[in-house]
Amino acid sequence: MSNPKHPKAGDRSIDVTDVDLVDITPDHIARLSKLRDGHAPAIAAILHADPAARQRAGLSEAEVVELEADWEASRRIEEVLPAVEKLLELLHETRLVRNHAIAFRLGEMAHQVRRRADRLPNGTEVAAPFQTLLEYHFAVGQKIAALREKNKKDAERSGRPPAPGKDMLV
Predict the structure, then answer these.
(1) pLDDT tens readout for residues 68-106
(2) CA 68 from chain center: how many Å?
(3) Which of 16, 49, 85, 132 shows the smallest number of beta carbons within 10 Å?
C-alpha cells in the first residue's frame, strides 16, 4: 500500500484533503471550456518564461500565479484519479455482491418461513411477523401469476391460444 496522499490503484485509503473540491450542476459542466491536447507545453511556456518576458507580453503575474495553482491542483487530481476510480469500481462491485447475498438470504428466509407456516397448525402466527418479508419476496411471482391468468382469460375470450412472450412463462 502506498501513501494515502499519493495513492495507487487498488488502495483503500485516499487523502485528498489538500484539494479544494467543487460541486457544480450538469448545466454548469456543459458550459465549461475544455483543455485540448497540447495544453501542458502551453502552460509550461508561460510558467517557465522569464518574468520580464511575461511583463513585455502583458501577462499579469497574479494570473500566472493563479494558473500555476490551478495547474498544480489539476495535476494532483490526475495523480489520485486512477486510485479513486478503482476504489469506486471496487465499492460498486462490492455493493453488488453484498446485495446479491442479501437477496439470496431474503429468498431463503422467506421460503423457510412459508414452509414452516404451511406445516404448523398455528402457521398464520408463525408467518405474521414476517408478512413484509413474504410480500417483498413473493411479489414478483404473484405479479407473474396474475399476468399469466389475465393472458389466459384474454386468450379464451378471443378464441386463440396465448402467444408466449415476456409476460408468459414457457
Answers:
(1) 999 999 999 999 999 999 999 999 999 999 999 999 999
(2) 33
(3) 132
Which pTM value belongs to this model? 0.67
d(CA 73, CA 65): 12
Whole-number Å distance between alpha carbons of 148 and 140: 12
DSSP state letters, the chain:
---TTS--TT-S----TTS------HHHHHTS----TTHHHHHHHHHHS-HHHHHHTT--HHHHHHHHHHHHHHHHHHHHHHHHHHHHHHHHHHHHHHHHHHHHHHHHHHHHHHHHHHHSTTHHHHHGGGHHHHHHHHHHHHHHHHHHHHHHHHHHHHTSPPPPSTTS--
Count of residues making up the chain: 170
3-class secondary structure per residue, 36-80: CCCHHHHHHHHHHCCHHHHHHCCCCHHHHHHHHHHHHHHHHHHHH
